[in-house]
Design goal:
single chain; alpha+beta; five-stranded mixed sheet; 4 helices; extended; DUF2016; metalloprotease; zinc
Length: 263
């Protein structure tokens, strides 16, 4: 009886292993079939040995058609994609604190146009309005005054768990009246850079070529404070940086500094 029981158990285990192997093969086959069926508008032969590289690029930043009849479904995951519309090419970017849709290029007035729909440009902040950040900017302005004659820097980080902005001081490795260097902090998975602050000391607030280089390719609000110190004329400059595109943001000086009223 024991021998029969052992044979039965061995046969059962072998059968279970065969079933498991078959299920694995079936699952992999389904996954492969879905991957092959996924539309990718790439003008290349799929048997080209370099085709997988283009597939990876396409998947990281796809181009999609905006529907003319159905409802437009916005990007939900963190990342970006390009939108082909009847009016032109748009870029859509999603970050935990930001959803932005902006036009990159217009179609020719006389040339052919894709038979697609249209999309409305938008800039949507998870924290509502930029005014929510102004108390932190005001606190930074006081720190920047104390750092004179040198430049100063700090970050404002969006905490997805708390659904709030937090102020993050930076470790400055070197600073002078013309330049500042700091270590980029390592953020937690639920944190993301939202506002990058730095000062120009007594010099006016503006975005220098170095600022342009530092901001290229990033998604953040960049802010500069200037005209600090006794006798200076305070000034501010704000812009939204979107992967090389910059969108000026209007922030009055009086929202950051207490500007004395004329006598």
């Amino acid at each position: 009886m024991e021998k029969l029981l052992t044979l039965f158990q061995d046969a059962t285990q072998a059968g279970l292993r065969d079933i498991a192997t078959a299920l694995d093969r079936f699952s992999q086959g389904v996954a492969d079939e879905i991957a092959r069926a996924k539309p990718r508008a790439i003008a290349a032969a799929e048997d080209d040995e370099a085709f997988p590289l283009d597939v990876a690029l396409f998947d990281s930043a796809p181009t999609v058609a905006v529907p003319k009849h159905a409802q437009f479904a916005p990007l939900l995951d963190v990342g970006h994609r390009f939108l082909m519309t009847a009016e032109g090419v748009f870029v859509e970017v999603r970050r935990p604190w930001l959803h932005v849709i902006q036009q990159l290029a217009k179609h020719s007035e006389t040339g052919p146009r894709p038979p697609y729909g249209v999309v409305t440009p938008k800039i949507e902040l998870a924290f509502g309005r930029l005014g929510v950040a102004l108390p932190f900017v005001q606190a930074f302005a006081e720190e920047a005054q104390s750092a004179l004659p040198n430049e100063h820097a700090a970050w404002m980080v969006w905490d997805k768990e708390k659904q709030a902005l937090t102020y993050k001081p930076l470790h400055v490795s070197s600073t002078s009246p013309d330049e500042i260097k700091f270590d980029r902090p390592v953020l937690e998975p639920h944190e993301s850079l939202a506002i990058d602050l730095h000062s120009h000391g007594a010099a006016p607030a503006y975005f220098s070529p170095k600022d342009d280089k530092d901001d290229a390719g990033e998604v953040k609000i960049s802010a500069v404070l200037g005209g600090l110190g006794d006798g200076g004329t305070p000034s501010v400059a704000f812009r939204l940086c979107v992967l090389g595109m910059v969108i000026p943001l209007k922030v009055p000086v009086s929202a950051v500094f207490k500007v004395p009223e004329p006598a």
